[in-house]
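Fold this sequence, please.
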Amino acid sequence: MPSAFRVLFDLALRVRLDPALRALTRHPATDGATVEADLRRSILRDVMPGEAALTRWQKLRIFCLNLVNRSQPPLSAQDVLALLDGIEAAHADDDGRIRALGSMNGDGQPGRRPQDFFAAVRRVTSPQPLPALGHLTYLDWIEQRWVYWIAQPAHALEADALLADLDVLSLHPATKIKGMGLPLAANFMADIGVPAFAKPDLHVMPIIGLLQLSIERNDEERDAFRGLVRIARAENEALRHDRGFAWLQEAGGLRPRHLDRLIYLVGSDNFHLDGRRNKRQAPPRRALMRSALIDAGLVGGHYA
């Protein structure tokens, strides 16, 4: 039986290369080697495109951009990016940048609910340690978890341990960031370069649900996240002896983010992670993923 990752990887190539599927993508191509290289590069891109995540300020930038990466955001992504770039230009050191951003309250800012955005930012940038964070500040806690999860091998990832960290940001009353649910929290951790995390979004959840033979329920996002972790671990073992995926092993093995990213690339058509995509054809592309997995015999309890 082929692996689900192999089936979806081959489908991603076919969406761009097959003339019969040209209407489904904004990225038709004829050079298979170039398309495969592009696909590998996008799957392995762990940090948010256009950003870096080595310093606390860089992680804070990604936090801010993730906070508005949803429907009806409190501020537009363009306004947030301009704000961050302006602060970066005005202050030479990261501590000064963090203090400047944390001192803002949203007065005079455009957007639907700028005060909500800046309240979340002030909470994350506060220099006050919190007992609920082990007497760390938010930025210290994020840094600590980043260091911890980066060091974990693919075979050691446990969904409940990962969810416990996501719950700090998205669920527990003492630490929750307003406006940040589980998907945004997971995407934030993944976008700061921790591929142990993955985002259960509208493209990913139906595919993971299909592979798990799970039904829609109140905790669908958590169920999909657990599935991403469990399936990635199983797929990593399956791909270890597939020479076509030696590049994944060289990167430390298949992680949940890599599986999530592959599903997202096909579903969204955002193959270059630059926003260019054919949104109208998302339902047919998701249907192609379902059909490919069913035809490969992968929907039968193997991942349940």
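The longest helix spans residues 220-239. DSSP finds 14 helices and no strands in the chain.
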